[in-house]
Amino acid sequence: MNSVKNWSITMVTDRKEIPHCNINHRVPAILFSLGGFSGNHFHDFSDLVIPLYLTSREFDGEVQFLVTDYRPWWISKFRKLLEKLSKYEIINIYKQESVHCYSSMIVGLKCHDKELRIDPSKFPTGLSMKDFRDFLRSTYFLKRTEAIKSRDVEDRTIRPRLLIISRRNSRSFVNVGRISKTAKTLGYKAVVAETNLSTDLPGFVQTVNSCDILMGIHGAGLTNMVFLPDNALLIQIIPLG
């Protein structure tokens, strides 16, 4: 939390104490921070993307984002999602010298105790993880909604696609070639990909959505399961030691 700037909300009773508005906005605002664990793909979704979706979805784009601890690379990575949630320019509020005035504002983001989950009972509109995943598919134009069914696999001409997420550094497969070859002999079409999420998130999510099974070693890269079609399988390899 050391990288998250603190903001204060002050109640003003005397009109003379209210600063003069340089810019009046006709839509409400949401103020949130890009500090903390942003940059880690899992925390990007659990701490920021999903909470921002839950907080802003009710406005249907008619809301403006005020960002503190501004990180341009994060904005660039998730630009498609941000533009889907807000029709207005994102403001780096820390660098503003003007006084921005809004009729209403939400400070902070709605989130749950359990990460990467949405409890529909806590929202009037009943938002769920299914709604969020449908939102992702719409944003990135993902075509597949259903994974290959088991009865379809009996048709030898249909081969389920197995995506093997490879890592270069820690917790990496040392025999990814052999794993891929074995998968092919078992009837799968193996796809090996590295997660280059900082520069090509839209391209990588297309690869994930095209597959029926996602396999990888425990880590943030498995967060990409949110882009899989419904009824797909996730295989998580947990190293010993």
TrEMBL record:
GO terms for MF: pentosyltransferase activity
GO cellular component: Golgi membrane
Membrane topology: Single-pass type II membrane protein
Signal peptide range in chain numbering: none
Domain Glycosyltransferase 61 catalytic: 125-233
Residue ranges of the TM segments: none
InterPro entries: Glyco_transf_61_cat, Glycosyltransferase_61
Top-level taxon of the source organism: Eukaryota
Subcellular localization: Golgi apparatus membrane
Coiled-coil ranges from the UniProt annotation: none
Key word Glycoprotein present: yes
Keywords: Glycoprotein, Glycosyltransferase, Transferase
Protein name: Glycosyltransferase 61 catalytic domain-containing protein
